[in-house]
Design goal:
The chain is of the alpha/beta class. The protein has one domain: Ribonuclease Z/Hydroxyacylglutathione hydrolase-like (Metallo-beta-lactamase, Chain A, 4-Layer Sandwich). It is built from four helices and 14 strands. The strands form two sheets. The chain has a seven-stranded mixed β-sheet with strand order 6-5-4-3-2-1-14. It has a seven-stranded mixed β-sheet with strand order 7-8-9-10-11-12-13. Strand 5, helix 2 and strand 6 form a beta-alpha-beta unit. The longest helix has 18 residues.
Length: about 210
């Protein structure tokens, strides 16, 4: 399995010559869907789904997402599959389990929207905009590390609750170089404490797992 961070909250998964992309949002650059046969989307916020990109992708693209995104996309010329917590499916040669239902609270009085997380090949867990603790061991966690709804305290506590072997920063496209350095330091300290590999991949950087 090859895992590539494309930008902000967007990731590319590759295995055996097949590819899918997770959360191709408007903050993550260009070329997000190159060679992708499928897309997984956690929720409807623009930094996780670029609606124009999806709508222009073509009829062969498979999209797996929650009902909130399906409704927001409306009539689009792609194959949309609506899934919810507990569902299991195969996409681009990967097995996927849906874990989680709701976005983290954002601001007072704002409704909490749907948000689903994805456990990929029983190895990599991506919670979307939530701090969902899956009731399974997690080898690799894509951990949100910066957001209007997130404190450093929260993401460190989340790392401790999940206790993965590897953790890579996601949802970090809003920070400048100073903020990125702080995320690096917190991940390094927590990784040392847990004796785990915890760090930030730069956009375009990849890691491969046997």
């Amino acid at each position: 399995m090859k895992l590539t961070k494309l930008g902000h909250a967007c990731w590319r998964f590759e295995k055996d010559g097949r590819t899918f992309v997770l959360d191709p949002g408007s903050f993550s650059g260009t070329g997000l869907l190159d060679d992708a046969e499928a897309v997984l989307i956690t929720h409807e916020h623009a930094d996780h789904v670029d609606q124009n990109l999806i709508k222009s992708a073509g009829a062969d693209l498979e999209v797996w997402t929650c009902n909130g995104v399906t409704t927001a996309l409306g009539e689009v010329p792609v194959k949309i599959q609506t899934v919810r917590e507990g569902d299991v499916f195969d996409v681009a040669g990967f097995s996927v389990r849906v874990i989680g239902e709701w976005h983290a609270p954002t601001v007072p009085d704002a409704p909490i929207i749907q948000n689903i997380g994805f456990l990929i090949d029983d190895r990599v867990f991506y919670p979307g905009d939530a701090l969902t603790v899956p009731n399974v061991a997690v080898e690799t966690l894509l951990v949100p590390s910066n957001a209007p709804w997130l404190r450093v305290w929260d993401f460190v506590e989340y790392l401790r609750a999940v206790h993965p072997d590897h953790a890579f920063s996601t949802h970090d496209g809003l920070v400048n170089e100073i903020g990125s350095g702080m995320i690096d330091n917190f991940l390094a300290m927590e990784g040392k404490s847990q004796k785990s590999d915890m760090r930030r991949l730069k956009p375009g950087e990849s890691i491969e797992f046997a």
